[in-house]
Design brief:
The complex is a heterotrimer of chains A (about 375), B (about 325) and C (about 375). Chain B is α/β, with parallel strands linked by helices. Chain B is about 35% helix and about 30% strand. Chain B is built from ten helices and 14 strands. Chain C is α/β, with parallel strands linked by helices and about 375 residues long. Classes of the chains: A alpha/beta (about 375), B alpha/beta (about 325), C alpha/beta (about 375).
Chain lengths: ~375, ~325, ~375
């Protein structure tokens, strides 16, 4: 039985491609495309002052590497158009009298208008832009200070010092803050879930739909053998996929891998118990392949999204956070991230592993019982 | 439209799938109102031939016309003028009987004035008038086949192609189905049927026996049976069939021995002489002969004999 | 093109849709599920970052700095610790994301008007949150630094000045910077893409598997009629789904709607056509439902989710991938949706996107029709 399934699954070259391509593609997309960082944000610059000081500010923006000035609107209407058409993500407007106010020690005005339609990048732009302005401000203050000191007591030692608190940051585990290091481990988890759950459910329902299921039931095949025969091949494929993606992650994307690979495989097996069980369960409630596909999507999607893979659990409403404790994918993602980036071992991860075991066993038992029933 | 007047004609029709020749130079002409039966084991090429005539497969070489239209260049016209029942059950399980009929009424563009009448006719014919709202899935095999036949004739096509329409149907339902086919033939419909049930061959006007892509015999059932002129068939019931078989092997004049039911069918060249020799041989072995008489060959016998002749030719 | 045959095909597909109650229910519930997911549960907004403080200085000056963090809505000080091991452990176990470490000589440096560094430690595994958290932390420190300097200057100079540059920051279109406002409009594109591909990708493959395709091919039915008839049936479902999505988005999630309804309707229809035709094309190109489903997931759903700009902005992607996104129809629809919902712009701005969607639909229709040859072999 096992052999038949494996052979069936692997025989068609197209099928083989489909088993291994989506994980790889996901890996690539998440590794390269999904990048939440902001570099070279397009901004429009409206200089209503046109003084060396305002040009200095502009140089700082452009020199930071985070901003590119792509437009210079001349009036309100153009500003509106630039933002409406998304030609730029933000408009920096230096108000008239900027340099003069600075010289006189009055508050000089700079306006930053950000396109909030993408609130994530908007926050980042505000944050970076704010920092550049703050730094400019601090320097301006330094110069002002010097001037004042000089005017008060010309000739005295220029003691232009004032306290300056600076932040020295150190980022652990992902020092360059590459998004891919954050996502790719999650992709590993997603693959196992997708392959095992969905394909298992489909494989079983397909037999039901085509009618070969009855044929199987007439043979001396025992239910448990049928179950194993249907699930184990996909388990094997899932583990192979994991290894494949991990290899790609390490070799192509240089995602750090600081933990133990055998541990990850072990946890993969634990997680498999749950997703295979879920796949089996789904197959018992679906009559047609279409139903199996739609319901597997309906359940896998939220499980996946609420697992902390791309969106932090911390940001979710409390109710949902509590619910996520019921999501085995959450624990597996924590484990995978821990192994990849943090290099931790069983001593730290044992609570998650224990949860996985509990879920796995429960899910398998439940679905096995139900599977038995439906075969009768 | 060519003027020959044949309902269906084929000339050296060939279909190759890669190196496998499924249909090997098939030629025949079918008159209007005929019931032509396509007999043969699975894989003989029956379905492939029918599919070519319906425009579902492109012939590798050769020509064919259905209702005067060329299968290679005028598939559209052919589709409009034929009815087809495919081998696999091909109606929609999750639609009701009525909905299936309505669907095919639309597919064949049955004119508005005739729609209701045709629908009623088909429901009548399939005996499903009371069950018009039932889901097709709930019907038993025989009913489904009649419904499928009905859907194929909604537009009253002059030519019908039925690919193994009775497979999986119980014998009584099969008989009734053939009655329907006869009724249709009587109203000038040409019917092309394929089957692997030998007993159904008797129902057909003419038969084409197919084996390994070739038509090895073509004619009415009576003609084909008479074709076995060189041989006669004896039916032998004895007390020990196995022993009998072995004994008969050495009797001159015995051409073939086959098990048939509880007894044996013995093919012989000369009835009188060989029967006597058979009785002698068996008596010598002490085997009791319960019955030994000449019988009319059934289609199955004819067919088996022909196939063996083919095999001998090939060898 | 025969209207009757088209209609018969449409009616039959509609029967299939309504008879499979489970699939239909799932089809109608999926948008609700996704809206709840993305509108309610998922967000990339960053605030209340769990932080630990390790104050090695323990003076009024250091406490003053700590108060800056405490007062900010972005940081949630979870505790004070006395050693690095505690910090390490907490970060390892993902109990905190950030730690502020104030060195022993902090107050001395401040008093002596020297540079007074403060250490910020971050868990980089969630790079997005970490980047933003870093930005906020640096801003807090910088502002505090500026304040200190201003105060010091004023003390010396006797004036009450303010920081020289007054940065006024304003956000357009989504002033509360609520991610749901920006996610929900784009989500509609993703939802429709999912439904469209899930439903249609199976339809032709199923006819092949069940054997009814052969029967259909022997009838006068034309490929274009089959494609169009099937598409229209699922179009009904798709339109229902989009109405549900828009209504829930506007009335439950209170996403602003500033644009024109007719434009929304037209672009939704055009997008749906394209998405449905694509699904049908895939179905026609494969003979089994399983393969059709996987291919449609790969080519419809994944690109729509990841490459359309609905959550992860296209500008941040590498140039090569940005080019690829130009082939993803969902990208254009997301632009239209954001434009209509948040920016209130009209055809004059969005005509390019709408044009692409129309072209795409036409091309895929032709592809699907051609793929559906009227022969078995």
């Amino acid at each position: 039985m096992l052999r038949k399934e494996l052979i069936q699954a692997l025989r068609e070259p197209r099928m083989r491609v489909l088993l291994f391509l989506p994980p790889l593609l996901q890996c690539i997309i998440f590794g390269y495309a999904v990048n939440l960082d902001v570099d070279h944000a397009r901004i429009a610059w409206m200089d209503m002052d046109r003084t060396p000081e305002s040009r200095d500010l502009r140089d700082r923006f452009e020199g930071s590497g985070r901003f590119d000035v792509v437009a210079m609107p001349a009036n309100e209407e153009e500003v509106q158009r630039v933002l409406d058409r998304s030609q730029a993500q933000a408009v920096v407007r230096v108000l008239p009298g900027f340099a003069r106010d600075l010289a006189r020690g009055r508050a000089a005005g700079v306006q930053v208008l950000v396109d909030g339609t993408n609130s994530n990048t908007a926050s980042l732009i505000l944050s970076y832009g704010g920092q550049i302005i703050a730094a400019y401000s601090a320097d301006a203050m330094g110069r002002q200070q010097n001037r004042r000191v000089l005017t008060r007591s010309p000739g005295s030692a220029v003691n232009a010092s004032a306290p300056q608190v600076t932040a020295r940051s150190r980022v652990w585990f992902n020092p360059d803050l590459y998004s891919r290091n954050y996502f790719v481990p999650g992709v590993v988890a997603n693959i196992i879930m997708m392959v095992t759950l969905m394909l298992t459910a489909l494989a079983i329902v397909r037999e039901k739909e085509i009618g070969t299921m009855e044929q199987l039931m007439v043979t001396p095949l025992r239910p448990i053998e049928l179950m194993l025969g249907k699930t184990l091949p996909f388990a094997a494929v899932g583990l192979v996929d994991v290894t494949l993606v991990t290899a790609v992650a390490l070799l192509v994307f240089h995602v750090p891998f600081n933990g133990s690979f055998p541990l990850m495989l072990l946890c993969g097996v634990l997680f498999l118990m749950t997703s295979l069980g879920a796949g089996l369960l789904l197959s018992t409630i679906s009559h047609t392949q279409q139903q199996a596909m739609m319901s597997s999507f309906f359940f896998v999607m939220p499980a996946f999204m609420l697992s902390g893979f791309a969106f932090p659990i911390r940001n979710m409403p409390l109710v949902v956070q509590y619910l996520s404790y019921l999501n085995p994918l959450r624990y597996f993602i924590e484990i995978v991230r821990g192994i990849f980036l943090k290099g931790v071992g069983v001593s730290v991860l044992w609570p998650q592993m224990a949860c996985l075991v509990v879920y796995g066993v429960t899910m398998l038992t439940l679905s096995a019982l139900r599977f038995h029933k439906t075969l009768d | 439209m060519n003027g020959n007047g044949w309902a269906v004609e084929m000339e050296n029709l060939v279909k190759r799938f890669g190196s496998f020749v499924a249909v090997d130079r098939v030629s025949m002409q079918v008159r209007k109102g005929e019931i032509l039966g396509f007999l043969g084991p699975n894989g003989a090429g029956k379905s492939t031939t029918i599919r070519m005539l319906c425009g579902l497969l492109t012939p590798t070489s050769g020509r064919a016309h259905v209702n005067g239209f060329d299968v290679g260049t005028e598939p559209e016209e052919i589709r409009r003028s034929i009815g087809y029942m495919s081998q696999r059950f091909s109606l929609y399980d999750d639609l009701t009987v009525e909905e299936n009929i309505d669907f095919f009424t639309g597919m064949y563009n049955v004119p508005r004035e005739r729609r209701a009448a045709r629908k009623d006719y088909v429901l009548e014919m399939a005996n499903l008038t009371e069950r018009r709202r039932a889901l097709t899935r709930t019907l038993a095999g025989g009913w489904k086949q009649r419904l499928a036949l009905g859907c194929a004739i909604l537009h009253d096509p002059p030519v019908l192609f039925l690919d193994e329409p009775t497979s999986g149907v119980d014998p009584i339902a099969r008989g009734e189905f053939w009655k329907l086919i006869h009724d249709l033939a009587e109203t000038d419909h040409t019917i092309f049927v394929s089957t692997h049930y030998m007993d159904e061959a008797e129902y057909c006007g003419r038969l084409a026996l197919m084996y390994r892509g070739r038509v090895i015999a073509l004619g009415s059932p009576a003609e084909l049976k008479r074709g076995l002129t060189s041989h006669s068939l004896l039916h032998l019931d004895s007390s020990e069939p196995l022993e009998t078989m072995r004994a008969l092997e050495r009797v001159t004049g015995v051409l073939d021995v086959a098990v048939f039911g509880g007894g044996l069918h013995v093919t012989v060249d000369d009835v009188e002489a060989t029967s006597a020799r058979v009785r002698q041989a068996l008596a010598a072995k002490g085997i009791e002969v319960k019955r030994l008489e000449r019988i009319e060959p059934s289609m199955e016998d004819v067919f088996v004999a022909m196939i063996e002749a083919e095999e001998r030719k090939a060898a | 093109m025969s209207y009757r045959r088209l209609r018969a095909m449409f009616v039959k597909e509609l029967h299939h849709v309504t008879r499979d109650a489970r699939s239909l229910a799932l089809a109608l519930l999926t948008p609700v599920m996704m809206l709840l997911l993305f509108g309610f549960a998922l967000s990339l907004d960053v605030d209340r970052i769990p932080t630990l403080v390790y104050d090695q200085d323990q003076t009024e000056a250091s406490r003053d700095l700590i108060r800056q963090f405490q007062g900010s809505r972005f940081f949630d000080i979870r505790g004070f610790v006395g050693n690095y091991a505690a910090v390490q452990g907490a970060i390892d176990r993902s109990r905190i994301l950030m730690a502020v470490v104030i060195p022993r000589d902090y107050s001395q440096n401040v008093g002596a008007s020297r540079e007074a560094p403060v250490q910020i430690l971050l868990d980089g595994s969630d790079s997005n949150t970490a980047s933003i958290a870093l930005g906020y932390a640096e801003t807090v420190v910088q502002n505090y630094s500026l304040e200190l300097r201003t105060d010091m200057m004023n003390l010396r100079g006797g004036e009450h000045g303010a920081p020289p540059v007054d940065a006024r920051l304003r956000v357009w279109y989504n002033s509360s910077l609520e991610s749901k406002n920006y996610v929900v409009p784009g989500l509609i594109a993703v939802i429709l893409m999912i439904i469209a591909s899930l439903l249609t990708s199976l339809t032709i493959a199923r006819e092949w598997e069940m054997g009814t395709m052969e029967q259909l091919l022997s009838t006068p039915l034309r490929p274009a009629e089959m494609v169009l008839g099937k598409m229209l049936a699922y179009f009904v479902v798709g339109l229902t789904d989009s109405t549900i999505a828009v209504l829930v988005g506007v009335y439950v999630f209170r996403v602003p709607f500033r644009g024109s309804v007719p434009l929304l309707v037209v672009s939704t229809c055009v997008f749906l056509f394209g998405a449905l035709f694509w699904g049908i094309f895939i179905s026609a190109a494969t003979r089994t439902q399983q393969k059709a489903y996987q291919i449609s997931l790969l080519t419809s759903f994944l690109p729509a989710q990841l490459l359309s700009g609905f959550v992860w902005s296209i500008e941040s992607m590498p140039k090569a991938i940005q080019v690829i996104t130009r082939a993803v129809p969902a990208r254009y629809f997301v632009t239209i949706l954001k434009g209509v919902f948040l920016k209130g712009v009209g055809l004059s701005v969005l005509w390019g996107e709408l044009g692409f969607l129309a072209l795409y639909a036409a091309i895929v229709f032709l592809l699907a029709t051609r793929k559906l040859r009227q022969k078995l072999a």
